[in-house]
Write a sequence for this structure.
């Protein structure tokens, strides 16, 4: 059976109940005996500090924490920033952008992020350069892809794919939660790779009826974005109950590690085969073209330069395998 990491994204800087939801979820993980891998934006870190929410920050102690870009859906997104520039210029722009988020993260937590998590559907290969420069070894929700959802190293950074997910809509309905949880647990038991990532949502979406970033869709950047409508408290509490039940079942069946612990496992890196390189070029290109259709991006964002820059670095690709000894 694979080693499992459980991911949630903490990113809403607007809606105040999202702060309490993040705290509730972090504590829920702890009560279930599960060490979560949480992605926090730089803007969320700044928001929690400006609101004096040390209680929220402290709730994440003991979990594995990653940086979820600086501002997530504020424009320009990662793809918008890097779509039209050369790789060399993009490296400078990506480093400047990501450094701001890392600095906010370090002020909030007094430590460097363990990994970088892509925001929504937005990425460009210059991110791998930027995180290496910032001392961050890996990126999750990898749009780079190799066969069997395997861990890989690309341009010197370790790519961690997202394989399974359960949505906030599932958690809010008892029957859907039961069916979806059972399906994911059954699928995990059949996985033959050494590590699998499971994404189980956003605290803010457990509490609110729509994502916080809806006002930023289609390239919009409102000065005073509209706040979301909260779910009734009973729906929120039902979601937490169902999420807790899933974590309990997961903890009893699998070894769950934070990303930082996963990176310390005895990985062996080897060159890809010709077939694996062909798979990477085809699948990663398709992923990037699909990512450009993320509703937050400005209309008609052209991903082809990002595709070219990524494929140009294919010789840096390595496949990760866990050593058997």
């Amino acid at each position: 059976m694979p080693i499992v990491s459980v991911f949630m994204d903490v990113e809403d800087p607007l809606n105040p109940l999202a702060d309490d939801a993040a705290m509730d979820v972090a504590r829920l993980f702890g009560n279930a005996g599960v060490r979560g891998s949480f992605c926090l934006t730089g803007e969320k870190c700044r928001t929690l500090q400006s609101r004096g929410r040390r209680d929220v920050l402290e709730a994440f102690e003991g979990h594995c924490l990653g940086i979820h870009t600086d501002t997530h859906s504020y424009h320009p997104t990662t793809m918008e920033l890097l779509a039209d520039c050369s790789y060399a210029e993009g490296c400078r722009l990506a480093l400047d952008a990501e450094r701001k988020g890392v600095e906010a993260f370090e002020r909030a937590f007094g430590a460097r992020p363990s990994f970088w998590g892509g925001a929504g559907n937005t990425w460009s290969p210059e991110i791998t350069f930027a995180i290496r420069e910032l001392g961050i070894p890996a990126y999750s929700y990898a749009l780079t892809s190799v066969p069997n959802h395997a861990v890989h190293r690309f341009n010197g950074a370790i790519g961690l794919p997202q394989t399974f997910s359960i949505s906030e809509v599932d958690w809010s309905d008892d029957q859907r939660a039961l069916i979806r949880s059972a399906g994911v647990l059954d699928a995990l038991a059949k996985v033959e790779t050494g590590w699998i990532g499971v994404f189980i949502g956003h605290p803010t979406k457990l509490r609110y009826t729509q994502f916080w970033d809806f006002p930023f869709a289609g390239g919009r950047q409102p000065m005073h974005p509209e706040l979301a409508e909260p779910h009734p408290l009973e729906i929120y509490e039902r979601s937490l109950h169902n999420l807790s039940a899933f974590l309990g079942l997961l903890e009893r069946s699998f070894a769950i590690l934070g990303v930082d612990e996963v990176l310390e496992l005895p990985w062996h890196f080897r060159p890809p085969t010709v077939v694996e390189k062909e798979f990477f070029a085809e699948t990663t290109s398709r992923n990037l073209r699909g990512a450009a259709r993320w509703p937050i991006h400005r209309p008609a964002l052209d991903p082809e330069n990002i595709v070219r820059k990524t494929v140009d670095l294919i010789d840096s690709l390595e496949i990760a395998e866990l050593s058997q000894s």
Observations:
- The CA atoms of residues 43 and 71 lie 5 Å apart.
- The first helix runs from residue 17 to 31.
